[in-house]
Amino acid sequence: MLQIYSAGTKRATEIDLATGTLPAGAVWIDLVEPTREEEAFVERTLGVGVPTRDEMVEIEPSSRQYRDGEAIVVIASVVSGVDDSPITTPVSFVLMPTCLVTIRYARPKVFEVFGAHLERDANLCTGARMTLIHLLEAIVDRMADVLEQVGTEVDNISAQTFRRGASRTQRMTTAALSVLMVRIGHAHDLVAKSRISGVSLARLLSFLGAEFDAGTREHLDSLAKDVSSLTDHASYLSGNITFLLDAALGLINIEQNGVLKIFTVAATVLMPPTLIAGVYGMNFKILPELQWQYGYVYALVLMLASAALPYLWFRAKGWM
Q: Domains of the chain by range and CATH?
């Protein structure tokens, strides 16, 4: 899909590729999962090469930040699918003197948010460089929102793990522990993806800072500081999540030990009554209590007492 934003307009416009021309005043050309025909149209119209999908996933800095004639080409990793299955998707920014071209093969929410901002304030898309800066600001803001969301989730997980009510004997079910592990895994995935995005943005801003003039460099320096702070915050959250993961695994181990303890105590308590029942269940004609009137009651009381004594002993020792 090919979307074009012109200076002073609040909505994207679409064109017929057969016409072979861009609208007057085109500032931002957004290629979303472009076809080969759309890529060829942009390359032919602007006279610049568009990074292919394979080129966008390369990780070496020389393939992610470079000059192509008058164009500045930079590639950043942006987090997408935050609420479902988070991924990092590469987004290419091709900055020309008069327009900005973005190429992406996913639909990060930040682009929808930025498009909504353009509908409210058309001044965000007045020039190629300022459009790029405003778009990068939106990406950094989205990264901050994601980390805030993860921070809240980590606090909720911590409260559920360590503050489960006044009763110390309150236990978490296996299903609850499974859900807890899934939540911890999702939070860790988001933080890891955010850190990858932050590192790529820091490299991108450093490269652009050397290419831009002093006036716009101040905006880039401010963004670079924000990215650095967010990356440090992501590292802090990663440490908390690692601690919660260890705690959750410890809880699972405790619950498993508790189950084994119950079976062990039950087996120990039932061993003496079983022995007594086995003795009086032997098929011998001569047993001392066989003809006794109270022999049956005596055997039952003896079995109950032999079961109660080990149980009381375990309680006295604090093993239960």
A: 2-255 (3.30.460.20), 258-317 (no CATH)
